[in-house]
Amino acid sequence: MLTSVPYFQTPSPPALIGTRVWIPDPEEVWIPAKLSQDFKDGDNSLLLQLGSGMELHYSIGNGLPPLRNPDILEGENDLTALSYLHEPAVLHNLHIRFLESNSIYTYCGIVLVAINPYESLPIYGEEVIDAYSGQNVADMDPHIFSVAEEAYRQMTREQQNQSIIVSGESGAGKTVTAKFAMRYFATVGGTAQESSVEDRVLATCPIMEAIGNAKTTRNDNSSRFGKYIEIDFGPRGDIVGASMRTYLLEKSRVIFQVPE
Question: What does pTM read for this prediction?
Answer without folding.
Answer: 0.82
